[in-house]
Amino acid sequence: MLRFIPFGALIGLILTALFILVAITAQRIAPYGLGDIVGGVWEPMSAKFPFGTDNLGRDLLSRMIYGAQTTIMIAVLATLLSFSLGSILGFTAAVVGGWIDMLMSRFVDLLMAIPTLIFGLVVLSVLPSTLATLIIVMGVLDSTRVYRLSRAVAVDLNVMDFVEAAKLRGEGKWWVIFAEILPNALSPLLSEFGLRLIYAVLFLSALSFLGLGVQPPAADWGGMVKENKDGIVFGIPAALIPAAAIVALGISVNLVADWVLNRTTDLRGGRGNA
To answer: What is the domain range of residue 140?
Structure first.
């Protein structure tokens, strides 16, 4: 089976699976505790500390492992929320139409007119700093992009013959949305899911870097960049390691998303299973 997977997609699958495995097993594989001070400040890489230590003398490898768990968990949950909310509302607006479609679309246009990062900073500055709040704010803000895509796809599908046939059979709007439109909209949505997931990782990292994301003593990759950024001046790579992890995760997920999109498009287009 592996021989049918392009090399780039295979690399993406391996890296993505590795990141997910690390996130799931973080408590078991981390050499030290999340906040344990085990050495001096910014010690170099060694056999004891493969990534060195951070600005407080904590093991950077352990912090990276716990940071992977926090970063991936929040990004996945926020992306699932954004897709659940955005796709359902987008499909509903396209199928129902009329003034409901107009009101929902104009409201989404209003939200999209405000820079997402600024909007997120304002909202998070007045709400409690909890993981649940962070996930909800990220999911709701990102759902506007999913809404626009879902509505655009659903508008085209809503005039197809198979949808018209379902309406003539007397099927309700929910049946049309979930049984007719959703299965045929999965291809672009799957591709967009990968992009939105990486956007969530970058958004979370930016919020944490600015102090309104994951709060200490919890660790995430964006917050680790902030904690160790002063070491760059002295040639200490402690801030570059979490930054490189963000880049690696983004590339690997995008490689998988592109392959899934091409695969589903080929299958739906009847061009074979290879």
So the answer is: 11-26+58-268
